[in-house]
Amino acid sequence: MVRAKICGIRSLEEARWAIDAGADAIGFIFVPQSKRHIQPELAREIFLKLPPFMTRIGVFVNENPTIVADIVRNCHLTAIQLHGNEAPEDYQMIGVPCIKAINISVDHYINSDETPVIPDNQPFFKLQSSLSNWTGMVQGILVDASYQGQIGGTGSPLPWDDPGLQGLFKLIRSFDIPLILAGGLTPENVQRAIRVVKPYAVDVSSGVEQLGVKNQDLITSFIQKVRGNSG
Length: 231
Hints:
The protein contains 7 helices and 13 strands. By secondary structure, it is of the alpha/beta class. It has one domain: TIM Barrel (Alpha-Beta Barrel), CATH 3.20.20.70. An 8-stranded parallel beta barrel has the order 1-2-3-4-5-8-10-11, surrounded by 5 helices. A two-stranded antiparallel ribbon has the order 6-7. α1 (12-21) packs parallel to α7 (216-230) and α6 (190-197) packs parallel to α7. The longest helix is centred in the last third of the chain and has 15 residues, at 216-230. The protein is globular.
């Protein structure tokens, strides 16, 4: 069964929408530059009112490991998601599962059967080396779309069936690290994304929003589409 995470939660009401719809995880963005940023104090208030078996993930970009550890402890996070240039080994002392994001520009993907150049113009072999080093330190690799320097929440899907991206997905699976797909997912396209990519989980934020605000009907529809496609 494909899992589903609703990210960018900013209120108790939104969290309950996701939980009631059947989401497996909810995400809170602790990145001041993000329009979906949430203060740790508010996140803690929300977490304390949530049921016990809901996975709670904090999203960070190049944040000091000590600060991340404090937020994890105070907000009762059950996992962290790193979207910057972090070295996962620096966050091992925190003691919760770590998801490492790979950000791919939707403007510069390579449509080729040859060995592609992928995230941030890094050669394929360099990512392969990183994945090798990350084995045992990260419990998931999240492939996300970036657009004009914006990381996450772009609303722009990747060309999932592009040979270069298919090569990336295959490479990640070869290390037996769960693949999480993000970037421009919506209730309308998530079933196709699941068929093409076959991820362990999908992660959505802007795709379940209207005018920048989470929408209950879209959250419910998204989860229903995921469940309908994952058997």
